[in-house]
Amino acid sequence: MSKKQKTIEELLEEALVPEEEQPYEVPENWVWSNAGALSETIRGVSYKKNQAEALKDVNNCLILRGGNIQDGTILNQDDNVYVSKELVKEEQKLQKGDVVIVSSTGSSKVIGKAASVSDEFVGESFGAFLTTIRPNKKINSSYFGLFYQTSNYRRLISNLAKGSNINNIKKEHLDNLPFPLPPLNEQKRIAEKVERLFAKIDEAKQLIEEAKETFELRRAAILDKAFRGELTKKWREQQNHLPSPEQLFNVIKEQRLAIVESKKELNEVQSMFENFNFKQYQNERNWLYLKANMFCYNINCGSTPTAHISENGEIPFLKVYNIVNNKIDFEYKPQFIPREVHEGKLKKSILYPNDVIMNIVGPPLKKVAIIPDQYSEWNINQAIVRFRPVESVLPKYIYYCLQYDETLKDIINETRGVVGQSNISVSQCRNLVMPIPSREEQEQIVERLDNLLEKENKALASISIYEKELEKLKQSILSKAFCGELGTNDPTEESAIELLKEVLQEKVK
């Protein structure tokens, strides 16, 4: 027995959102409909690992994944995946104006991320962890897609998607979303006005990006002047009692040999000092150019004792994500290890306040930080190395020197690793050559860099505030757009309920 066809009245009753469930008030000629009445929900392509291909050809198509959706836009990625067109159903081929949504993920921040399909991705497809919503042809696809960029949508969908271990958006979640539907001409006007306003915001954001780039260039120029001796040139000319390069060399040698921990290390360090060429590694400023292991405790990385890592414990355990803007951020995903592991398996990578650390696995590389005194001891994983200089070399001088482009330039150019990853070895870190002036001049350099870079950082922070305000402005525009407050609504236009009836009529045929 066939299922009874629903009447237009029954479909309309199902589609309209009851007044008590409507999120907010909209103009009188708008209606609240559930999104499912206005669109078709399509699940993604399932495929086996051995069916995935890395290169595009005429017989396959791109399979979008969560990483392809960034900031409301679909982007190509270096690790794009392709599958045979035979695995893709006709309805799973993307059309312009489709909205692609991340519908299954372990991240609450990623769940519900959405982007509209542009011409570039028409005919491609999407994976099983994504869902596509295809608006009815009678609905303006630009207006429809903008709804899925609103904070109201993200808030609703995030609450609905919460699961025990993984966030999932079900078909009924998407179909039952309350959707503010204006008349068709108003949809077009809203989409056009939002596009114009967003274009102006994007221009402002581009100017901010250009300004940030100039900050980076200025910062690099300041560091360059510091480590070529220009910042302290006048100060140096006024000094009469600075140690000679030979005196500085001998003091550093004595301090370094006093802290060797093994015969192997002793032989390596002695060899470095014995083979040092004063003519080659000295300049007119009387600075020495020394390998890092000549003026630091033996440089080591840590490791990951997986079975012993916990969210609570005695010894804080640092990973690369804890280095933020060249400072330690231990508020984000803090992890700890037991003291017995710290003093046993990870003994060689124990950290103390004022030690300098740097990541050796990227991208990006050159993430550097000084260990704070928040804890008396710390430790690190294998993606980070420790620099602990001898008394004649200031930790903060090393901190700045590791951020100087020239210090790591040659090594970064020859880094090797898996595709998309850059690695620096511990051996390369030990052999990093850095300019070492007297301790007195190091103090002057650090003081000048502190002052100059603080001014730059304050200016950059001001710009970052404007950047955040622009993002808030976008959300404010979207909020007004879907409340009918952009000044584009014409109350004399026919009610959107007639448009909804036209859409539903197709289901009656």
Structure description:
The protein starts with 7 loop residues before the first helix and ends with a helix. The protein folds into three domains: 8-182 and 498-508, Alpha-Beta Complex (Adenine-n6-DNA-methyltransferase TaqI, Chain A, domain 2), CATH 3.90.220; 184-228 and 441-489; 243-437, DNA methylase specificity domains (Adenine-n6-DNA-methyltransferase TaqI, Chain A, domain 2), CATH 3.90.220.20. The longest helix is centred in the middle third of the chain and has 44 residues, at 184-227. It is an alpha+beta fold and 509 residues long. 38% of the residues lie in helices and 16% in strands. α5 packs antiparallel against α14. A four-stranded antiparallel β-sheet has the order 2-11-7-9. A four-stranded antiparallel β-sheet has the order 15-24-20-22, with helices on one face.
Short description:
This protein is of the alpha+beta class. It folds into three domains: 8-182 and 498-508, DNA methylase specificity domains (Adenine-n6-DNA-methyltransferase TaqI, Chain A, domain 2), CATH 3.90.220; 184-228 and 441-489; 243-437, DNA methylase specificity domains (Adenine-n6-DNA-methyltransferase TaqI, Chain A, domain 2), CATH 3.90.220. It is built from 15 helices and 26 strands.
